[in-house]
Amino acid sequence: MKTQILIENLFAEDIKQVPIRNGYGEGLLVLGKENPNVIVLCCDLTESTRSQAFAEAYPRRFVEVGVAEQNLAGLGAGMAHEGKIPFITSYATFSPGRNWDQIRVSICYSGNNVKIVGSHAGISVGPDGATHQAMEDIAITRTLPRMTVLVPADAIEARKVTIAAAKMNGPVYIRLAREKTPQFTTEETPFEIGKAQVFRAGKDCTIAAIGPQVYYALQAAEELSKSGIDCEVLNMVSVKPMDDATLVKSVKKTGCVVTAEEHQIMGGMGSAAAEVLAQKLPVPQEFVGMPDHFGESGEPNELIAKWGMDKKAIINAVKRVVKRK
Amino acid sequence: MTIRELEQKANDIRQDIIKMLVLAKSGHSAGPLGMADVFTALYFDIMNVDGNNPTDPNRDRFVLSCGHINPVWYATMAHKGYFPTSELATLRKLGTRLHGHPHNEALPGIENSSGPLGQGLSQAAGMAYVGLKMDEKPWRVYCVMSDGEQDEGQTWEAAMFAGKYKLRNLTALMDRNNIQIDGHTEDIMPLEPIADKYRAFGWHVLEVDGHNIREIIDACSEAKAIYEKPTIIICHTIPGKGVDFMEYRYEWHGTPPDASDIKGAPKKGTQAAEALKQLRTLGGRIQSEHE
User: Fold this and answer.
1) Domain count along chain B
2) Total tally of structural domains belonging to chain A
3) Residue B291 lies in a domain
């Protein structure tokens, strides 16, 4: 097992739990110091999107927009046109959900260097219910030409993603989650836009995951190893551009793949992986994700269990897919 | 340029609009003809812009929100020297820089892509915010909007924002021609009292005859003198201005000359010739109070 790029005691019961969105807030503070052109716009959700610390440290570079996500995207485009690097921030259901046309025309088509940050994505938003659980945001952003789509797996990776997004020129969508989830990567864990990382090497099945599901995939792989199924776990943080080479190389070895994400199965990261594999190396694939359905209220762990996006769902999907080889 | 010269320039621009639309075989007629005087005033008098230096950091920014009237923008820019007037014949054709709706990356001098209505004022407000509040720059932002796109909620989100932050370096000009594709604005979705609405949102509001170049210039000068508020100039225009069978007719909103038979107009195939004839002789009919 090769997990040295991750923390020791990966499966400790008292593993540190941190919301992924916290890493965004930390990344903004680093950027605030490094680059005077980085600015933050927010739609009345400054604290919960973790923009607060930046707003306090750099008040002249923080813009309160009010509850107006369409205007948020347009303002970001206009400010990017003047050389700023705006991080436009809200919940993923509202941005890129409500303002997709503005993101399409004012940002992507116009080539404006805007970073769209959607917090509270996925069903693990929990008690707020289906309206606030963004399950379609990857699908609607990755189909936009020029868009880069990044989904960090924990808070440390979210910090790296935030900093890297500011350093590239062009629109980026960063997907964040609300709930505390295990912090299992380290400062040394490699991250690069366009690259997937092999978090666990294996030969029987590839599990390609994003966001909180990466950790569940590692747990699933650990459990499956006891029943003799040796899984390789990929962190597909860069959903677009996707690291075709790493995915194909892994699948060439394992002969099958399970994709796992807190998103609609249709159009999500699993679909993106299928687009790659259908052309380069068709293999049996099982999709862990939302089965064309809206969410509901409940505790995050209850919801990911009920709707089949937890460790158990990944284990079952692996068992199904290896039989299809 | 004198007012008389500006009026003649606007008339030349109108003739180019007709010629472009006939060759393109699709596009909007009424709005572009109605806004020729406003565009002429902006590009040849009001704004600090240079066709030979479209990326000058100190230029005034111009944002067109209602991208569908871009024949008037393209014709004005060509006359201003951004590109050769001969290129106007490529409007909407494969390989052109003059897309059916404007694209900022295709043509130097175009600051924003537009078409889907209601997106321009937000971008203009974003630019103005940077210029006023962050970088403290002397340039101003001008945003042309249609009246129809006041139906869009985003327009009012941006209006609220500009009012809150008192973006005094932002001047919006509304093409108040009272038509949109399905009919008259007050039948489709009433806008009045539009001036009061903007006042309530914290704007300085002016109203002008959109075909009186002197009034347009004076209003923009007043806007520069207004502190603590953004300014909107409601330009009362006649859609199709200069061609009698197009004037006031919403049927010409989204139709080029010679593409179809329209009630009250010359037969298909003779419309452009008649329009150009009227425009060529309009020079003699212009009544300038400032001569």
Assistant:
1) 1
2) 2
3) no
